[in-house]
Write a structure and sequence with these properties.
The chain is of the alpha/beta class. The protein is built from eleven helices and eleven strands. It has an eleven-stranded mixed sheet. The protein is globular and about 50 Å long.
Length: 369
């Protein structure tokens, strides 16, 4: 959900989960919940119960939620704790968990250039006590089906760099993040049997950082609309985060499906960024669009809004995408700048709501709660 680091740390997501039949082994959760080719489970979440409930009331009850946590605290953020508690009290569907460590690395003893060191420290057990706390919190709800992202919008710059003074691809250690991913999985699984794991990379970096078929259940991508050199981190725990310049790749929204954000354009005349297309074609596991939302100018009018949604839906159908996470949120109400973020709630415009009802709710591919 990024050189937008932590792009989706405090906003509602709609996650659409489509399961493939695959020859690779699944975790015990998958053994109980068999994949279904061509079906997409609609999952809405991330932090704010009132926004999740707003979508459920106006559209349809989704198949789950999405929440966020922090490795340094070993906990979900307070809004996510509230959402998960309310949801699990009445439902047993999907809970996507974004476990962040890049977002607040500079507030926890690392520079922005020490991504590989941080990952190696995680793999070596430095944060095991915090991970055990999180594992215990997740274990309170054995009835739900967790989809955990061990960090998100993973990139060479923020997860492999070893140059102490600059982002330098020539120094990238591509073994560091896979080790951290596998270690997080091991600790969380020590207290839980209902977790599957998403590898969520920025476009263009997925193949280099892939942790391996033995530990990954889903491949995540982030279509959005922020220019590749733009960076912004929202507060995960209501504190400002460092801004990063990340030219190698980002979690983006409209630009990934070749629509503008303000004056910024990307792959004009096409419908999908070629870097993202290559990653989607390569993916050895069921695919995930982990974070997405219509942004200005697309979110400002019904025609442009539905054009954006139709492009993402086309990606879901073309690649039999396993997870589509859509941020259904009034961004400015949570402190985001109005020039790049607006109202991405599909229920906020009558024509957009009608499009969603016809093309998503009315499409037998998509399964709700």
């Amino acid at each position: 959900m990024t050189p937008l680091n932590g792009l989706l740390s405090s906003f509602v997501l709609i996650t659409l989960l489509a399961y493939h039949v695959t020859s690779a082994p699944f975790t015990s959760l998958a053994q109980r919940q068999a994949p279904v080719t061509g079906k997409t489970y609609v999952n809405i979440g991330q932090n704010y119960f009132n926004e999740w409930e707003g979508f459920a009331t106006a559209i349809k009850t989704p198949a789950g939620i999405s929440v966020y946590g922090d490795i340094y605290a070993g906990a979900l953020n307070p809004d996510s704790v509230d959402l998960l508690s309310r949801y699990a009290g009445q439902h047993s569907g999907y809970v996507e968990v974004g476990l962040s460590w890049k977002d607040a690395m500079t507030q926890n003893g690392y520079t922005q250039f020490q991504g590989a060191q941080l990952c190696n420290d995680i793999a070596s057990g430095k944060f095991d006590s915090q991970l055990q706390l999180l594992a215990g919190d997740l274990a309170r709800y054995p009835q739900v089906k967790y989809l955990v992202r061990p960090d998100y919008e993973v990139s060479g710059n923020l997860h492999a760099n070893t140059d102490p003074g600059a982002f330098n691809p020539g120094t990238f250690d591509y073994t560091a993040y896979p080790k951290a991913f596998a270690h997080v999985r091991e600790i969380l699984n020590s207290k839980n049997t209902n977790i599957q794991y998403i590898f969520h990379a920025v476009r263009g970096d997925a193949q280099n950082l892939y942790p391996g078929d033995d530990v990954v259940d889903f491949i995540g991508m982030s279509p959005s609309s922020i220019p590749p050199n733009f960076s912004l981190s929202p507060p995960l725990f209501h504190t400002p985060l460092t801004l990063y310049n990340q030219p190698t790749g980002v979690s983006i929204f409209n630009n990934d499906v070749c629509l503008p954000v303000g004056a910024t354009t990307n792959c004009a005349g096409s419908r999908l960024d070629p870097n993202l297309a290559r990653d989607l074609a390569w993916a050895p596991k069921p695919r995930v669009i982990a974070e997405s939302a219509a942004q200005p100018p697309a979110s400002a009018g019904a025609a442009a809004f539905t054009d954006y949604l139709s492009r993402v839906r086309d990606v879901v159908e073309r690649y039999d995408v396993a997870v589509w996470t859509y941020i259904d949120s009034l961004w400015t109400a949570h402190g985001w700048p109005a020039d790049t973020w607006g109202d991405s709630r599909v229920e906020s415009q009558a024509e957009v709501k009608a499009w969603w009802q016809e093309n998503i709710v009315g499409n037998e591919r998509f399964v709700f709660g």
